[in-house]
Write a structure and sequence with these properties.
single chain; 79% helix; 4 helices; mainly alpha; transmembrane helix; transmembrane
C-alpha cells in the first residue's frame, strides 16, 4: 500500500512575493533617488536569494521515511543561507559604489519581514 502523499508547501510563493514587492519598491524609488533604489534592491536580494536556497534544500524531501534526509538538508540549507548572506553583504559593500547603507539594511529587513509573515500565513492556513 503506497503511503499518503504529502503536498509540498508552497514556499516559492513567499519568494515570488518578496521579488514582486522589492521590484515595485525599487521602481518607485528609482524616480526619487537612484542610489537608494539600487541599495534597497541589493539589500533585498541579500535576503531573498539565501532564503530561496534554504527553502529549495529544506523542502526537497517529503514523508516520514525521509526524516533524516529532511533534517540533513535543513542543516545544510541553514549553513548555506548564512554563508550566502555573509557573502552577499560583503559583495554589496565592497563592489557597489555609491551605496546607501541604510537602504541596504532596510531592503534586507523588509524582505525578512515578508518572509516571516509569509511563513506564518502558510502555517496558519495549512492547519
Amino acid at each position: 500500500m503506497p503511503g499518503a502523499k504529502i503536498a509540498r508547501p508552497p514556499v516559492h510563493r513567499i519568494t515570488l512575493t518578496q521579488l514582486a514587492v522589492l521590484t515595485l519598491l525599487c521602481l518607485a524609488l528609482l524616480v526619487y533617488n537612484e542610489v537608494v533604489a539600487w541599495s534597497l534592491a541589493a539589500g533585498g536580494l541579500v535576503a531573498v536569494i539565501p532564503q530561496a536556497y534554504f527553502a529549495h534544500l529544506a523542502f526537497r524531501w517529503r514523508g516520514a521515511k525521509s526524516a533524516r534526509d529532511m533534517a540533513r538538508a535543513s542543516y545544510a540549507g541553514e549553513i548555506g543561507k548564512f554563508m550566502l548572506s555573509v557573502a552577499g553583504f560583503a559583495v554589496v559593500f565592497a563592489a557597489i559604489r555609491p551605496i546607501d547603507g541604510l537602504a541596504v539594511f532596510a531592503g534586507y529587513l523588509a524582505m525578512l519581514t515578508i518572509q516571516i509573515i509569509g511563513s506564518w500565513l502558510l502555517l496558519t492556513r495549512s492547519q
